[in-house]
Amino acid sequence: MSEAQTAPASVPEAAAAAVLEALNSTDSNGTEALNATAKFVATPEGTALAYVSLVLMALLPIFFGALRSVSCSKSKNASEMPETITSRDAARFPIIASCTLFGLYLFFKVFSQEYINMLLSLYFFVLGVLALSHTMSPLMSRIFPTSIPNKQFQLLFTQGSGDNKEEIVNYEFDTKNLVCLVISSVVGVWYVLKKHWIANNLFGLAFALNGVELLHLNNVSTGCILLWGLFVYDVFWVFGTNVMVTVAKSFEAPIKLVFPQDLLEKGLGASNFAMLGLGDIVIPGIFIALLLRFDVSLKKNSKTYFYASFLAYIFGLGLTIFVMHTFKHAQPALLYLVPACVGFPVVVALIKGELTEMFRYEETPPAEEEEAAAIGDSSEKKDQ
């Protein structure tokens, strides 16, 4: 999203950015919090199983995505370089999301819902296959048989010619990645044909993990701007209008994690779901990942701010469930997640006397670091 980012967009990075735009403008639970199918009375056991499962599924992409974001931030491979979100991007994002949301609302009012969802299914099929393939790559690297040759490939799209040639996509991959792509495509076909909740969750988890890994905030102030901006966005569109609910009910895409509350009664064919939108995972997740990278930058061999924000997320999500279950009304999860995820680390920083240092922490994309280093080297040569 950063206008200063000079590296060409990688395929997983572009997919992560596209999904972030989509899930924050259409996310049924990024706006309605945890919810269940109306007119269905779940058993206490079924409800507890669904909520615990959703919380655990939400924690997985945040935890592992944050860990992967550390190595991603140091990568010089164009296909793995993160997308940097600046304060300007963060300030504009709630406005862009609101315009997209209202545009979709009008779109569903004018055009047939069936054809729109058909196009969306194809769109998210492509994004889902790419995201799931990227997610599986580290695991495949460990289990891939050494007896099979691992050939290298490169997907390169350029624009212009000669000195004006510009790279649009530069994605390097190998045989292992192709195997991941085939497996992901099978899941994609399963989702498109059956819309099964397990296939939905596989894509949803992949989207969330890719988002946390590849979308980087450049500093804590930018994170605060993004989170509080979407806090207002979430509350307004949930409590202020019916636009969010209308779009959420019409929009069929793997942009939420679901778990059946009637699983114990109906097994894998269950159909009454509790749900958690990816927006409530990715948005706090990229902030938590930033704090982990801040921990690493301190070189104190501790992850204090990461664990503080991670526990804050668990607290905020638990509070969302409690309020929703008590008042029997859907809640905007960011209403509880944002104060918790921002407040806990700030309190820890105040106690440790590192608040100024935390807000001064700045991340520079690898491409800009190389450019700055090159300028520094050339300046030294001139001085000599």
From TrEMBL:
SMART domains: PSN. Keywords: Endoplasmic reticulum, Hydrolase, Membrane, Transmembrane, Transmembrane helix. It is a multi-pass membrane protein. It holds the Pfam family Peptidase_A22B. GO terms for biological process: membrane protein proteolysis; signal peptide processing. The chain crosses the membrane at residues 48-70, 90-108, 114-132, 199-218, 225-248, 268-292, 304-327, 333-351. It is found in: Endoplasmic reticulum membrane; Membrane. One of its GO terms (cellular component) is cytoplasmic side of endoplasmic reticulum membrane. Residues 364-384 are annotated as: Disordered. One of its GO terms (molecular function) is aspartic endopeptidase activity, intramembrane cleaving. Belongs to the peptidase A22B family. This is Histocompatibility (minor) 13.
